[in-house]
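Before any further analysis, we paired sequence with structure tokens, yielding the entry below:
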Amino acid sequence: MSRAAQPTGTTGTLVALVVAASTTTDDAVDAFVATLTAAGGDVRVVDLRPTGIDPQARPPRVVRAVNVVRSGARAARRWDADGRALAVAARVVVAADRPAVRAVWATRGWTSAALVNGVPAGVRSLR
């Protein structure tokens, strides 16, 4: 999956789905898109996942917890012009995973979209 916003081809409420965890698989992203599309969203993916990291690597528990916090801060700095434009145009911006939460809330200064944490909250906001 590329880092560019991916249109789904449906018409509905424009939703920006932000993915930032290196462990979030493309299959999971596809499932999130399908769920939000079924709820009436025109979903575009903003992929802020880091490149070059093995998602199967399992560091110790404390290291994983610290990495989640750090990866959220890094993801918040990875917004590019296309992602920002999508967040500004969207009616709903959804954080697909824990590191994406910080990236989504970093948009609050430049978007008036509803900012939600998690796909279930995104589905509720579309109803």
Q: What stands out?
A: The chain has a mean pLDDT of 82. The first helix runs from residue 26 to 38.
